[in-house]
Amino acid sequence: MASIRLxxxxxxxxxxxxxxxxxTAPITAYRTFSSSTLRLDPGAFKNDKPAAAxxxxxxxxxxxxxxxxxxxxxxxxxxxxxxxxxxQAGAQVHCFDRLDTPHPDFALSQxxxxxxxxxxxxxxxxxxxxxxxxxxxxxxxxxxxxxxxxVAAAGIQRVKEAVDHTPQDVADLMDVNFTGVFMSANAVAQxxxxxxxxxxxxxxxxxxxxxxxxxxxxxxxxASKAAVIQLTRNLAMEWGKHGIRVNALCPGxxxxxxxxxxxxEVPGLKETWEKENMLGRLAAPEEFTGATIFMLSPAxxxxxxxxxxxxxxHTAW
Length: 317
Fold this sequence. Notes:
There is one protein chain. The protein has nine helices and nine strands. The protein has one domain (62-316): Rossmann fold (3-Layer(aba) Sandwich), CATH 3.40.50. The chain is an alpha/beta fold. The strands form two sheets. Strands 5-4-3-6-7-8-9 form a seven-stranded parallel beta sheet, with helices on both faces. It holds the Pfam family adh_short_C2. Keywords: NADP, Oxidoreductase. This is D-arabinitol 2-dehydrogenase [ribulose-forming]. GO terms for molecular function: oxidoreductase activity, acting on NAD(P)H, oxygen as acceptor; oxidoreductase activity, acting on the CH-OH group of donors, NAD or NADP as acceptor.
């Protein structure tokens, strides 16, 4: 099967290929994806300019140096990909995941981060356990003397017809996708308020909170993401006076293990989704790192209460 090399902003030492190379400045990195999966011709990204070879020439407002963050759902998938980019930007990143032991991908990322200014750490935390969540975030804030923000990426999905949902089905999904996000943001914001430190919180919602997904029956999931979008606006309103900005990232369809499972459950879904956005393909997790770094960093200092949609034009038809 033909493959392409996808340009992204991660340093070579932070990819999950298992090859750990010592670097002193960010360099262009590539991940391999199936060209049939992405619906692109080889070399489709050739016109993209690689990142600057030296951080000294980088736009300083995108730096996260000297800052500490929490990433829920950061042990794998989109959350881990975002955490890797944050490490490259200089942050101390604490990843929460419900797995007892880190996923193999996380171990590679942690080893690679030893050569970088930032660092990445794993914590076995289930966002549904509020007491443990609060204690762990408080400990992190005490360790660093500060906490500068959050990326709330923990989430689950259930493909099921609306008429087949039970109250427990809905409660289980909302407990992670909405309540877990809400309580994670609360715990981080409380620490930021105690230290009187401004910062940024990014809640991972979805374009699915704005539209109905053709061919995929997941009403509770979509409703949970719509709730996160509205939560973003309300938290931004309440916490703005403390210098805490709150924004939502609304991704389009991404190639992740969770989505691959959807494709197995619903024949033809992948082809349907590829046709529904203006780029004619699905996204890779790395394509959301730039937007997230922007929202976390001083580059977006006057942005709050917003929903940044990154969906290949899906919702713009």
